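Before relying on records like the one below, remember that each one covers exactly one chain. Contacts with other chains, cofactors or solvent are not represented anywhere in the record.
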Amino acid sequence: MLIKKNNMANKQIGGYGLGASNRAGEEVKKSPIQNAQEKTDALISDNPNGTTINKFSEGINAQLTQYLPEVKNKIAELEKIKALGSNAEGYNEAIDGINNIEKELVQLNSDFEGAAAKRKQLLDTEVNETYANSNTDDQATNFHNFANGTFGEEAQIIDGRLTYGGEVWDTVDTGGEYNPELESVVDDALTETLELAHGEGAISIDEYNKITRPTLEKELNKLVKGKDGKTAVKDYMFQHPELIDTFISNQTGMEITPEFKESSEYKELYNLNKTNVNFNEGFVDTVLGMHDAEFDKREPAQPEKTVEDYLNQIS
């Protein structure tokens, strides 16, 4: 049984995409991500048994104190018109108004419950350390401000919806979790290929080309071109520092030293590669090339010796 050689795979995969631009044509937007993350870390540290998430923040409670009486007054006025009967002036408008207010209240309650549930989910993601490194600084800042309750503290009720920073709460982009499916396929497939190329159960190059390689290519394309394929390769690259460092080394022609990693050029490329580079392009061919190379470099099969061959060795 051969041991998985993830580092070897990562080193080879990181070398693809040599044609990528080495400069960005725009400035990286600075964001208060560090402060947001520190607040999340402190919240988790201060609550080792889990954080209590309230449906209403203090700020929202204060707004509800004003909002709900206003809504009740509107309903009361509309109910007066409704009570006059269907022939009364404004009756239909009153019915519609009451229905709309009821829908608004149901939606607002759903917003509060949904936001609380999402905050719990994001805190779990942080605790489990499954937040993808490929998320942008803006996404990460939103993620932490949502998770640590900052958004809840600053929330506003606008037009009957719960909003964070002027956006309806469920439209705020908080990025996503890392899905290791592609990584698992790449690692497992390379382990299998090493065995098939060099192990006791080695197969012929013909069998590899006709069966093993097409199967792997189909599986990789399914992941890369599927519904999550837009981010699958990028997530994989950024989840492994050695991969994205090799990629940036190819972009710049520079060795990735600790000093260079602290430079503005490295940080600029690191962030802009999250949005300006299509990592999917060429990825499948690169992975297949790694597998082809294992079969290309193996020792040619030796013909079985005959009795005559053994006799010649003795004589």
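The chain has a mean pLDDT of 86.
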